[in-house]
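User: I'm new to structure prediction. If I give you an amino acid sequence, what do you actually give back? Let's try with this one:
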Amino acid sequence: MPSSPCGTGCIDTDADTVSNTEFAMRLATVVALMATFPVANTVAKRGWRNAVQRRYARALLGCCGVELRIVDNRGTDTPGITFAEPGDGVLVVCGHVGWTDILVLAAVQPVSFVARADLIDWPILGSLARRMRVIPIDRANLRKLPAVVAQIADRISAGERIAAFPEGTTWCGRAYGNLRPALFQAAIDTDTAVQPVRLQYIGADGALSTTPAFVGDETMAQSLLRMLWSTGTTAEVVLAPVEQPGTDRRDLAARCERAVRGHVHLDFAEHGVLEPGQRNTVRQPAEPVPESCIA
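Assistant: Good question. You get back a string of structure tokens that encode the predicted 3D arrangement of the chain. For your 295 residues, that looks like this:
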């Protein structure tokens, strides 16, 4: 089972918050968005549904005090900033901080997700997950993993965009785990390109923020309320150059991990991120980090 040393002690508790009035408005907007999304998604013409889903995801991010910043480092001439052209299958891989990652990726371009099996039972996100045709994965039952890989392969072969979080669990954003290779087999089996995405949350002070982290024993309701109160967070999405599948899933996972991390392990070493090749251990930095971030 993938495990993370991060816990609630990692979460920023001094982040800026909104007023009571703003909180009430955000809550009412979330309820309205979730009530109208099924109808809007159904009545929208097929060619407009991606735009509808993207706008709803961005609106929900706004209610959580999160702004979106997209950086395209692929050097392509593709019009617009998207993971792939319509009808082109692609496997999108990203580090995992919390449930807001789903909204962030959907705000770039709607995708289907490989996500924990109980996600469809969560409040608010559950309805969105069902509409996005989530591929459920039970990390505690490895016997079902080949079936999950096969389902991913079938759907990217059919031209779908599938996003996965190969760390297998959430980390606080100032520490992270390795990208495990199992799900990459779907890209190899179908000779499908992989789009690595570097996602990090930045606070109003310009430092990495752990406010969106969904870690430890925190409940979904607690996390949602914190995000509705918060403000000043920017989700920075960096689209790294596409990786070709090759023939070795471990090599593919390693290449994508380097792309996903970028220079974070150099620029933010004081936050205790993992050294390349380490598993579930965090390097002791020059400045102390919360004990919950140290394995």
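You can read the tokens as a compact description of the fold. Here is one thing that stands out. Residues 265-295 have pLDDT under 50 and may be disordered.
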